[in-house]
């Protein structure tokens, strides 16, 4: 039997450090690399995802070979701490015998209670539910990957772009997933594989504790005597108030650093996008002119399509507000306790949130602007409830900030946005109604298994009428996902999303988090899902990445 390691292996530290660096790199790279819409940027991000997967497997192997069990959020002290030595096992058996002989009435804690079994201990049911939820999500992840892989290996037809014709295959298996464009399905599979590695690697990293957090846990669990009573020293040391408060009011260090990277990068991206729009240039980042949408009003920042840029900002800025609220509350509580805090660095988050919330309106993307305005109202309501114990002046100053956002955005971009909103139904949503009509026919003809992931642009050529423009995307990701994956794959994807959103309701087994930060993150995801009904954010790699990053964070959170 392997002896459990009490220290972190050096190789494990290296893998953890590389994982953190890669996550930061991808969080910054994917939006700034022109939205990760070109082949070189997509494969760079995929390479990062594959490397994260290799590092995750390496950490699993190190844990198995050495018996090392990392300290993780949501795990009770001493739980799953590896194989016990003879002395540890003997001590544990003695404690179990003592617990088993304690009857009713043996002291205050025994009144009305018999000896507790393993299943009756606090938190056991929650831990078991968390375990099954994690395994269910992992199994569904493997299912979607296999679904895409089988579709690529079982082509129904091959499309030749040069000849503009389909070559149909008769030797495909009808009852298995199949694709009408195996090349696009292969690309989708490789993308999904990298994103799956990223999701699980980032979750594994976020749940781990830093050395400072482990030291705090070690100090908070004093050694006990055989009777279970903590020994009282003659001259007890004064408690470290800062460490005590951090356990209850602060976001874990790793999650803090990741949120700082997202918020600061998003704030800089919003500044660049606004300046680029005001300059009137048609070059992305003042560097290249895209193949499509070559005018300044159709672009925003590094995104060639303004709607995708608006979706990115709408995903980040509500989370930024929630992060600011948590850090502000932590700072206030620490000051009241007399602990030294690191100043008001969290105030930098508010300008970032204001710029990112205004950017979708300034971009003149109709769907993005409506989502931003809806989120401004929703975030204001949540903030009003979350700060109900604050003074009226402080609450009014907070809420006035969300009045400044539409005023600032309206000054820079409302004139152009108002014209586009007036023509929303006159131009049939930029002629999307005919795309929807043709696509519903595709969905009816391929109900169960779909046409294959990534194959919409190819199969749409068979259903558009003469004289109609060909479209690579449906501008309705809900319907496009149902067309390409069928009801089976679409149902599995929706079930995965439900598991992620419902994870917080299971207590234990994760990072304890307040409801307000969770609700801000939910609002960000809800805005993206609503926008996906009229556009194609989930066909853009950087937006898929950011959405999954927020889902990975949510799957680490739990109720206190």
How many beta strands in the DSSP annotation? Answer: 4
Largest sheet geometry: 2 strands, antiparallel
**How many separate helices?**
17
Q: For the residues shown, what is the average pLDDT? A: 82
Helicity level, as a percent range?
Answer: 55-70%
Coarse morphology = globular
Describe the structure.
- The protein has 560 residues and is mainly alpha-helical.
- It has one domain.
- Helices cover 62% and strands 2% of the residues.
- It has a two-stranded antiparallel ribbon. A two-stranded parallel ribbon has the order 3-4.
- A hairpin with a 4-residue loop joins β1 (157-160) and β2.
- It is globular.
- The two termini are 36 Å apart.
- 37% of the residues are buried.
- Mean pLDDT is 82; it is low at 77-122 and 222-248.
């Amino acid at each position: 039997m392997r002896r459990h390691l009490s220290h972190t292996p050096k190789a494990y530290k290296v893998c953890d450090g590389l994982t953190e660096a890669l996550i930061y790199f991808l969080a910054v790279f994917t939006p700034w690399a022109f939205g990760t819409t070109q082949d070189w940027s997509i494969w760079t991000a995929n390479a990062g995802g594959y490397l994260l997967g290799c590092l995750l497997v390496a950490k699993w192997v190190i844990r198995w070979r050495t018996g090392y069990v990392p300290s993780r959020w949501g795990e009770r002290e001493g739980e799953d701490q590896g194989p016990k030595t003879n002395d540890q096992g003997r001590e544990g058996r003695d404690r179990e015998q003592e617990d088993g002989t304690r009857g009713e009435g043996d002291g205050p804690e025994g009144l009305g209670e018999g000896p507790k079994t393993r299943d009756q201990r606090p938190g056991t049911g929650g831990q078991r539910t968390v375990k099954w939820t994690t395994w269910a999500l992992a199994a569904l992840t493997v299912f979607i990957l296999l679904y895409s892989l089988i579709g690529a290996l079982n082509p129904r037809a091959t499309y030749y772009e040069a000849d503009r014709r389909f070559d149909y295959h008769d030797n495909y298996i009808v009852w298995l997933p199949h694709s009408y464009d195996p090349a696009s399905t292969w690309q989708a599979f490789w993308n999904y594989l990298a994103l799956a590695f990223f999701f699980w690697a980032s979750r594994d990293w976020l749940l781990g504790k830093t050395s400072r957090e482990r030291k705090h846990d070690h100090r908070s669990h004093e050694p006990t005597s055989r009777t279970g009573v903590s020994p009282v020293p003659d001259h007890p040391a004064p408690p470290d108030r800062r460490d005590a408060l951090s356990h209850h009011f602060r976001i874990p260090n790793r999650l803090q650093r990741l949120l700082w990277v997202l918020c600061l990068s998003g704030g800089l991206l919003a500044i660049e996008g606004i300046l680029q729009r005001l300059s009137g240039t048609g070059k992305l980042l003042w560097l290249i002119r895209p193949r499509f949408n070559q005018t300044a009003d159709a672009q925003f920042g590094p995104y060639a399509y303004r709607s995708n840029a608006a979706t990115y900002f709408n995903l980040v800025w509500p989370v930024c507000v929630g992060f600011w609220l948590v850090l502000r509350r932590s700072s206030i509580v620490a000051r009241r306790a007399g602990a030294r805090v690191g100043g008001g660095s969290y105030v930098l988050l508010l300008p970032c949130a204001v710029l990112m919330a205004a950017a979708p309106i300034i971009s003149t993307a109709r769907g993005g602007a409506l989502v931003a305005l809806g989120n401004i109202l929703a975030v204001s309501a949540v903030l009003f409830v979350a700060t109900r114990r604050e003074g009226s002046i402080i609450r009014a100053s907070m809420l006035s900030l969300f009045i400044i956002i539409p005023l600032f955005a309206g000054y820079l971009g409302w004139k152009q946005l108002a014209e586009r909103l007036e023509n929303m139904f006159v131009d049939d949503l930029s002629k999307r109604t005919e795309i929807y009509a043709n696509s519903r026919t595709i969905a009816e003809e391929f109900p169960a298994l779909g046409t294959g992931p990534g194959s919409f642009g190819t199969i749409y050529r068979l259903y558009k009428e003469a004289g109609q423009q060909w479209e690579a995307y449906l501008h309705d990701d809900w319907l496009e996902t149902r067309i390409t994956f069928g009801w089976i794959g679409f149902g599995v994807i929706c079930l995965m999303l439900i598991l992620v959103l419902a994870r917080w309701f299971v207590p234990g087994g994760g990072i304890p988090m307040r409801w307000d930060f969770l609700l801000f993150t939910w609002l960000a995801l809800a805005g993206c899902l609503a926008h996906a009904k009229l556009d194609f954010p989930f066909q853009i790699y950087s937006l898929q990445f950011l959405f999954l990053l927020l889902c990975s964070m949510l799957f680490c959170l739990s109720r206190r």
